[in-house]
Write the structure tokens for this entry.
Amino acid sequence: DNRELSMLEAMRETLKARLSKDPKTTLLGQDIEDPKGDVFGLTRGLSKTFPEQVNNAALAASTILGVSTGQALAGDHPIAFMQFSDFMPVAYNLILSEIGAMHWRTNGQWESPMLIMSISGAYRPGLGPYHAQTMEAICAHIPGVDVFMPSTAADAAGLLNAIAESGRPSIFLFPKSLINDRSNTTSADVEKQYVPIGKARIARTGQDITLVGWGGTMPICERTAEALAETGINAEIIDLRTIFPWDEQTVLASAKKTGKLIIVHEDNQTCGMGAEIAAAITEKDNSIKIARVTRPDTYIPYDFACQIEVLPSFKRTLEKCCTMLDVDIHWNKPVEDEAGTVTVKAIGSSPSDETITITALPVSEGDTIAEGDLLASVEADKATMDITAPVGGTIAELLAEEGDTLTVGTPLLKIASDEAAQLKPLTKEDPGTPIMEKRRVAEVALPKAQSLKPKASIFISNITTVFGSRHLTNDELLQGHGEWDSDAIRKRTGIENRYWIDGEENVLSLAVQAARDLLEKENLHISDIGAIICSTGTPLAMTPSLACSILHELSPEKGEVLMQAHDVNAACSGYMYALQSAFDFLTNAPEKKVLVITAETLSPMVNHDDQKTMALFGDAATASLVSCEQRPGKIGVKLSRPFLSATGVDEKVLYVPNMGSGEVIEMEGLTVFKLAVRKMIDMLDNACKERGITVDDLDMIVPHQANERIIEAIRKTIKCPPEKMFNHIRKYGNTSSNTIPIALTELIPETPSGNLVGLTAFGGGFTFGAAVVEKV
């Protein structure tokens, strides 16, 4: 079934599946039987298929809930339909004193697993005070009752399935403004969809301000975020969807990240859900700026223009954001009708109509008409209706033809009229185009440069590793050809294995997978990261940088994630260079987190005719989380600032060409040997000196070189016992800047707290680096 279902259709199919699977599920409500099938058609067709389970009720809200409560106590799974949420107060005592209280007052001996479903909310013409309220705050105030309000078809189906499994009394409010929204459809397999109770949905990712909404205000939040994005401001949008229990953890994490929180809801401001969220977040972190966009403590008017004045609107929400963000805003108003011209717009037959189809258009341009004359016959979602002339005059312009399908509110035709009264009923908010400009910060005297002493300790909490999928032993690499054999490679280099990329793999795919694995392990989103620093000597291109390409791959579909992102090219020392960049970044922004990525794919450039170099290189990527937060993780080390240096040497001493150039890696082994031994020892001495220790104080040393003889020469020079020199190149070969982070993933989990580990590396291009880390 390839259909895409609207919220209304998804709920109907979910109810149908539940009725079919569970004979104890029953539906009771006003006008829910066929042919009407509910005021909005939600239950249409269900009573024909399940005549014993779907029944009409009298016009009595208390009776509907009372009977359903009894059924629940008797072991059935009733679903009670309140035609509009506005009608629930009539039966409020049953919800408060019976349904919600039953489990508590019987000490768990009685259960009342019933579901109350009710359409709610405004943003539709002609609703008024009796058919436009949401009531979620009143519902959430009842202990023992879960409360839901989805904004998408997928969430509606997924939440209904979760409620069925929960066995808890629940109230499900679905917004009438969204039930036929074709921009938020879901697949037809609704019985397989599931949304965890109490878990909010991050609808859009951002880092500058957090918008929290639910139900009918979600399109307003999304429209606001789109407008802000035009000014370079990235708003994060959270769809609460479960009103009680609400997802405080997700809201708090986002508000801490952005420092600004705006809550948007249709319900009254006083004692509304927004007040509860604001209070809870303030109790946890009073540094967060918080504001609300709500309905004032008033009733909802019939007139749609007045509705927009009262309800949260795009205009009010955007202006509230601008105030909090120090952005100036003014509006370019929509073009009004010229004097003497009235525009007639497409309207539907009910508040739930989204589109209409013109079945007849009996007028032509130039026709003279009187007030009340037929202009068009249209077919809406629920009924056929006529559109008549609001004033007398002449048809000035036809803007549509018979057979056209129009969105409600689209201009249909224009009438030239001398009549003073020009009726122009609004069907959607149209405040004009926002023009925004960020206020410039006044120039102030800059403080003197601070030293690079960190404001807080800096830690590496986790490292993830991804290898090329093609594993090659020495024998598999040589395949019996050439002057060397497997034992010769092992004796000269110490290497026994390496991993090469295969198939569709490349340096970007490895790096992205390592980053995704790390974010999942740390339970973070890319928007929680403040910078990506990528060490690579084998990027796919110079522009975009590998770091920016990784950011693009990790970014969400909606919203823009902005952060520092750049590459470091220092070959085998690249991890040291990237760590120093991360260290310095966090020194001035201790609240941020840095993703340090190393990624190298050297195998495409090896010289298969030169077995001395072909055997050395492998392909891998790693991702390290560096922050001032001591997070739980397998690595858990405190980082000292790396010590770096470089020297100029002829390029052919160690040469790695650009990817795709057709050239191969070249190396003068003896020159590399001499430089590597001397420089790696110097770097390690300097890194220890910066820490106030000596090399003898180190519990372990992790060198990066692809030749075991170089590692052994370093060990003997500094008189280091064999067990203190950690070497794992036999497993993986030379993975360039990946080597040290890969080694850390093997070494650190078994290292006792307090141990000092020295890292030292020598890189192509003749860069050198070393650092000391301490296990915490």
Remarks:
- Confidence is low (pLDDT under 50) at residues 443-451.
